[in-house]
Each structure stands twice: as structure tokens, then as C-alpha cells.
């Protein structure tokens, strides 16, 4: 992994956003994996600025969301159909047909998961996948214990994940759905490039396990160690648990002078 440590959350988001914008500029037909949650918001804002101020062309990209709740109506404010529409589709000026989110209300979520996996494959696979990390080490909704070979499927949300997400539902954990459709870990690892964004002390333990711990289903994000092109953008607080953070700081400071860094 290439670990990029910034002093503040907004600088981490700006660096990550610059990477996304560069990828789109280099490949106007990019298939981009997008994530929900608070961590990617600064990334999306940076890309929006590139679109509005610098004319970044996003008319040919295709986006696939990581996950969606099962049973939550698509017009619910916290459905990921709505969240992605409000944070990516509309701010970036994308057409609705450019953005795909798992169908959580079809009545047959297992088939919906299979269909979504097929759709990603038929689009040529994800070129750049943006992910966050949960406090328990999940990526997407791949909770601890998820198979590292898993594909898009139904998952039961961990109580900690539902507790963490209750803030989006007025603090009512009972309002948070119990099940979801999520891209699997193997699906995420199929992406050509993975970009992780995380900030805050609450993510420090998970980040340390992801970067420096063993590859284990106990920390699903640790599977990213197996990916040949993963960049991790974090702030100082999220980097607090890294034993070798001085090395990462040095590597970042000297990245421009190191071929292939």
C-alpha cells in the first residue's frame, strides 16, 4: 500500500480528490466505484471543483456504488440511491444512466446482487474504486468474518455498523436496516486501482490493522494488502495507530523524487 498522511482531513480529501480527477482526465470513459458515508464527501467536492472551474469532462464515465440497504425505498433520504444522487450524480452533472446502485427493493435481493455483479463485469470492471473503512474494519458492507473471496451478495449488518449509521437515521438504531447488498471483497479487489480515504481518531485502530496487521477476515479491509495498486489517504488522527508512520511520512515527502512512488 502507498500510505499518504496529511495533517488535516480536508487535505487528505483534496489529495484523494486530485487522484480521482487525474484518473478521469486520463481516461474519460473510466468506470469509477463510488462509496457513501462521510469520508468521501471531501473527495467528491474536490472533483466537483475540477468540473466547474477546470472543465473536467465526466460525460463518459460510469459509476457503480459499493452497496445499498435492503428494503429501504429508493426515495428514502438515507437510501444510497438518494445519497449518491445528492453527493455525486447531481453535483457532478451526471446523467442518471451513468450511475448504478444495487437494487434493494426488487423483492429478490439475491438475484439483484447477482445482476449487479454481472453489470460491473459487462461494463469492463471498475478502473478506480473509492472506499472508506468502518471502525470495525469493514469495506463496503463486508463486515468482520466476510470471506476474502466474496462477490456481490446480501449481508447482515454488524450491530456496530448499525449503531454507527444511526446518526443518519435521527439517532434511531432501530430505523437502520438489518440487511444490505454489497460488493464483495473479491469484487473490490478486481478493481484496477483502489483508493482508500479515512479520517479521525475513531478510524485509527482499523487503519492500523488494515495497513500493518495480518490479512484476515477479522479486518476485511486488510485484504487490500493483496491489491497491487492501493493508495490510502488519511489524516494525522487516523494515522495515530501506525507503528511505522515516520516511514510513511518520509515516503510521502519524497514521493516526487522516487521513481514509481
Can you give me a brief rundown of this structure?
The chain has 261 residues and is of the alpha/beta class. The chain is built from 8 helices and 10 strands. It holds the Pfam family Glucosamine_iso.
Walk me through what this model shows.
- There is one protein chain.
- By secondary structure, the chain is an alpha/beta fold.
- It has helices spanning 9-26, 41-54, 80-92, 109-122, 159-165, 185-189, 204-212, 245-253; strands at residues 2-6, 31-34, 62-65, 67-69, 99-100, 128-131, 153-156, 179-182, 193-198, 230-235.
- The protein has one domain (2-257): Rossmann fold (3-Layer(aba) Sandwich), CATH 3.40.50.
- It contains eight helices and ten strands.
- The protein has a seven-stranded parallel β-sheet.
- Helix 2 links the parallel strand 2 and strand 3 (62-65).
- Helix 1 (9-26) packs across helix 2 (41-54).
- It is globular, with a radius of gyration of 17 Å.
- InterPro entries: Glc/Gal-6P_isomerase, Glucosamine6P_isomerase, Glucosamine6P_isomerase_CS, NagB/RpiA_transferase-like.
- This is Glucosamine-6-phosphate deaminase.
CATH class: Alpha Beta
What is the H/E string?
Answer: EHEHEEHEHEEHEHEHEH
Return residue spans where pLDDT drops below 50 for at least 5 consecutive residues: 256-261
CATH architecture: 3-Layer(aba) Sandwich
Give the quaternary arrangement of the chains: single chain
SS class:
alpha/beta
Q: Helical proportion?
A: 25-40%
* Integer-rounded radius of gyration: 17 Å
Number of beta strands:
10
Main sheet attributes: strand count, strand direction, barrel closure: 7 strands, parallel
Give the helix tally: 8
GO biological process, one term: carbohydrate metabolic process
Keywords: Carbohydrate metabolism, Hydrolase
InterPro entries: Glc/Gal-6P_isomerase, Glucosamine6P_isomerase, Glucosamine6P_isomerase_CS, NagB/RpiA_transferase-like
Protein name: Glucosamine-6-phosphate deaminase
